[in-house]
Design brief:
Length: 178
């Protein structure tokens, strides 16, 4: 499964309760490279709306490593693609400070405005990757209060994740628009 398919599966699982129908659009949007996630999501949302021409939402999830003063943030994908699981764990999972924040930011555009929603969860970086490595950094992120990585938690991840929190906020917004 590609990383987008994993996200789509998670989004469907989380939003199905609120009656929101997810219609994935397979279209590449060129993301600006910045650690300013609010700016990145707004830019991506506007570009997507210009391309698709109907109300939509985009999502960006990033890691904020405490030992790096919150970096890589909006640059998480480049960071991850460069270092990958073993190196991230070797470097950051064995430091004195393994704290990390995972944040999901959703941007919704209806053609008039862009509204953003955020979910966050604290955790630590595992000293070695554990679980399935197919979905980016799930194999190295241990949420606070758990001894397992997101990858090891399987579907239980969707009950506690930063994506769930952001999607619930987004779903509540949509529910209030009726």
């Amino acid at each position: 499964m590609s990383r987008n398919e994993f996200k789509i599966q998670e989004v469907r699982s989380i939003l199905e309760k609120s009656g929101v129908e997810i219609v994935p659009v397979d279209s590449k949007i060129e993301e600006i490279q910045t650690d300013d996630v609010e700016k990145l999501v707004k830019d991506k949302c506007i570009k997507a709306f210009q391309k698709i021409g109907r109300p939509l939402f985009v999502e960006h999830t990033g890691l904020y490593i405490n030992a790096l003063n919150g970096f890589p943030a909006g640059l998480t994908q480049v960071f991850w693609d460069t270092l990958e699981a073993d190196r991230v764990s070797d470097i950051f999972g064995k430091m004195a400070d393994t704290a990390v924040m995972a944040k999901t930011r959703i941007g919704y555009c209806d053609g008039k405005k862009v509204i953003q929603f955020e979910g966050r969860i604290s955790g630590k970086i595992a000293p070695e990757p554990r679980g399935n490595r197919a979905f980016q950094w799930d194999c190295i992120f241990i949420p606070d209060g758990y001894g397992e990585t997101f990858a090891e938690l399987g579907d239980k991840k969707n009950q506690i994740s930063m994506r769930k929190l952001a999607l619930e906020e987004f779903g509540a917004y949509l529910g209030g628009q009726s």
